[in-house]
Amino acid sequence: MHLEDLAEKAADFRAEEAHITHEVRVCMAASCQSSGAAPVMTALTEACGDATDHCKVKGVGCMGLCSAGPLVAVADKDADLIHSVLYRDVTPDDAPDILASVGGAPVDRLRCPTDQPFFARQQRVVLENSGIIDPDSFKGYVAVGGYSALVKALSEMTPADVLREVTASGLRGRGGGGYPTGLKWSTVAKMPGDQKYVICNADEGDPGAFMDRAVLESDPHRILEGMAIAAYAVGANKAYIYVRAEYPLAVERLQTAIRKAKRAGFLGSKVADTQFSFEVEIRLGAGAFVCGEETALMASIEGLRGQPRPRPPYPAESGLWGCPTLINNVETFANIAPIIREGGDWLAAIGTEKSKGTKVFALAGKIANTGLIEVPMGTTLRDIIEVIGGGIPDGKAFKAVQTGGPSGGCIPQAHLDIPVDYDSLKTLGTMMGSGGMIVMDETSSMVDVARYFMEFCMTESCGKCVPCRTGTQQMHGLLDKITKARGSHADLALLEELCEVVQATSLCGLGQTAPNPVLSTLRYFRDEYEEKLRGEATP
Amino acid sequence: MTLQLARPPMPSDDKRWKLVNAAMRRNGYADHALIETLHSVQDAFGFLDETSLRFVAASLDLPLSKVFGVATFYHIFMLKPKGRHACVICTGTACYIKGAGALLEGIEERYGVNAGETTEDDRLSVLTARCVGACGLAPAVVLDGDVIGKLNSDTLTAKLEELD
Fold first, then answer.
1. Which one of A190, A192, A361, B33 has the minimum C-beta count within 10 Å?
2. Which of A136-145, A271-280, B4-13, B117-126 has the lowest mean pLDDT?
3. How far is B160 from chain A (nearest CA, A)?
4. Are the Cβ atoms of A365 and B138 closer than 8 angstroms?
5. Which pLDDT value is given to residue B3?
6. Within a 10 A sphere around the Cβ of A68, how many other Cβ atoms?
């Protein structure tokens, strides 16, 4: 298949809906569904039924502003989110009014302006189709240019060309580590052997992070396309998507996408009529945070307990069943199609010197606009929180923003003006992580937060290595004592010493980074620890 | 020549065992599909008991110790039956910051059960999750499979009271 053939296909799919001029898009991602999007969808579909044939009601993926759900957008057929009329907190009773407004005056009482910074300041690469296409529709994905990157790679590029573009893009792993994607791919490509694997890490375990969930639920074909391109580049033909069992909707949509892509010839043997064959299988996680670590994840795919093993050897040399394996995160794979379509230099033009492209962040906690955003790397924390996020609600004062989940740290007011990228966050004692940002206001005690994360690491420690297994338990005990105002300066000194030991001697990332929340809160909020030592307990 | 292993008979006439068998067959009775198989048992029966663990071990030709090890390692697998209703309180960071603790306290006060326990009349099991990814709606719970967000202790108790 050549690009022209695919373009013809896309044109055919568009022609099938040529009579439609307007779309009513209902967010059917998990968050809006929890707020009652399904009855809204039913009401709109029923009301639209015979009234008009130029308007189509369709379920789409995440539009970002989860706290205002259920969200419904009325748009001209090819318009993006910003150029549509967005309605918030929609109920089934609003259906007639919304349909009556199509092509006319908007319903003011439901209106959610799309020119506000939350929408206007975003730059959508990974989420370009999110909230616009129907995630369950193969035709919908192809109609907006889907699979053109895969067909381009297979028909016009050698695997080496693909590696060159990905390397040129400067893309770094979006799971949190920030390892250069091109370098990882090249390492796997260079390994000898006929059997290689590609794995998509969709075990989004960081509490407070839901970016991957939204991408999987909103644009599943995009992940399959990215994975297929990766497999072609490194010489693999079998892949696994390891996804959390806690995300049933994402699993369902992935299954549908795999089935439809297979039927259309974009998965399976002879992908797009070439000699390349590619099989994808879904593997369900079972609720173990440590399985986000790549060697633990592979153990879990092999049906074992999810316990990490020492590296090296890295998965690129010896991974799944001892074969060379490429593991990337969902968001990393979601960046691949645009890189191949537009060229590596195109992505490299976005972002900062060492962190290219955009990043999806999940805003949650004490912030006005909770939801998903995608901004260029290098956007300042202040912009993200105060402008895009709308600041702190209820007239409270900002205290800290937590990034990087249980492996990250808390950033205080004084550092809000730093541009967010992999390296700047590291200098502040935290990390990018997968992109969860939890905002805390003056009512949160930072010692409690440190204890919360230590409790998390303690229960999630797999128990394989001693420093992590017993160290997290001891640190949690000390933090518990301190939060209950029963701690002494000696306890604090011991806590700091333990942080150092656990960091230096643990086997995997979970233990090595478990002390980070403690260290960062000690660095910026030491006075709160001192208060506790003086006997002022948290209520 | 490959040796054909005899598959163990189904533990009872219960039709749900067929679902478990189907899951194992789909994966060619491969031992690496153990976690998938345990998921299918839990989907069918609600929890994993000794009979099912022995059956899975024999079917996949795995030592029982390994099956038990996996079943106890992963949080999602339950070795005890749940009550008629299950309320999973999300204790992810966003929910924690927005008051998941108060939800748990409210339930404890009203029903006298802690996380991981079931009420004596088997009506309600209270569980916790590490993050259900509904952070935009924090604090959230999953009540019998449905995510409900933006709760406080009173609204949650009211929902629980409505259950039969």
1. A192
2. B4-13
3. 17
4. yes
5. 62
6. 22
Contact A523, A429 (CB under 8 A): yes
Which ipTM score applies to this complex?
Answer: 0.92
Question: Which chain A residues touch B94 with a CB distance below 8 Å?
Answer: 207-208, 364-365, 370, 438
Return the domain boundaries, chain B.
16-73, 85-162
- Which backbone phi and psi does A60 adopt, to 5 degrees? -130, 180
| 3-state SS assignment for residue B131 | coil
> Which helix (H) or strand (E) element contains residue A101?
helix A95-101
Q: Which residue of A has its CA nearest to B99?
A: A365
Interchain contact B132–A (C-beta under 8 A): yes
8 Å CB contact of A286 and B75: yes
Q: Determine contact, residues A174/A184, Cβ cutoff 8 Å.
A: no
Question: Residue A439: which residues within 8 A CB-CB, separation 6 or more?
Answer: A363, A364, A365, A366, A367, A385, A389, A392, A398, A400, A401, A402
Nearest to B134 among A31, A302, A405 (CB): A31
Residue A133 above 60 pLDDT? yes
Q: How far is A158 from chain B (nearest CA, A)?
A: 34
Contact: B38, A31; criterion CB under 8 Å: no
Q: Do A365 and B74 touch (CB under 8 A)?
A: no
CB contact under 8 A, B148 and A34: yes
Closest CA to B131 of B155, B107, B98, B160: B98
SS3 A118: helix
Report the b/e string of A123-159 with b at 16+ CB within 10 A. bbbbbbbbbbbbbbbbbbbbbbbbbbbbbbbbbebeb
A441: β partners: A398
What are the tens digits of pLDDT across the range A142-179? Answer: 999 999 999 999 999 999 999 999 999 999 999 888 99
Cβ–Cβ pairs < 8 A, chains A and B? 136
User: Backbone phi, then psi, for A86, in 5-degree steps?
Assistant: -105, 135
Q: Is the domain B85-162 a CATH 2.60.40.10 member?
A: no
Q: Do B92 and A204 touch (CB under 8 A)?
A: no
Å from A223 to nearest chain B CA?
19
Q: Which of A31, A32, A212, A290 to mutate to test the interface with B (most CBs of B within 10 A)?
A: A31
> Could you give the CA distance from residue A518 to residue A529 in angstroms, rounded to a whole number?
10
What is the spatial distance between Cα A300 and Cα B10, in angstroms, rounded to a whole number?
A: 27
Hey, what are A144's tokens? 């907006």
Q: B122 vs chain A: nearest CA distance in angstroms?
A: 24
Average pLDDT of A439-453?
Answer: 94
Q: For the full predicted model, state whether its pTM sits above 0.80.
A: yes
Q: What angle do CA A378, A384, A387 make, to 5 degrees?
A: 125
Q: Are strands A279-284 and A238-243 parallel, antiparallel or unpaired?
A: parallel
Query: Which of B38, B73, B78 to mutate against chain A (most A CBs within 10 Å)?
Result: B73
Inter-chain residue contact A208 with B93, CB threshold 8 Å? yes
HSE value, Cβ hemisphere, 13 Å, CA-based, for A380: 10
For each of the domains in chain A, give its residue range(s) and CATH number, in order of start: 20-116 (3.40.30.10), 146-348 (3.40.50.11540), 358-441 (3.10.20.600), 446-533 (1.20.1440.230)
> Angle A308-A312-A316 (CA atoms, 0-180°, nearest 5)?
90
Nearest CB to A30; choose among B33, B96, B133? B133
CA distance from start to end of chain B: 58
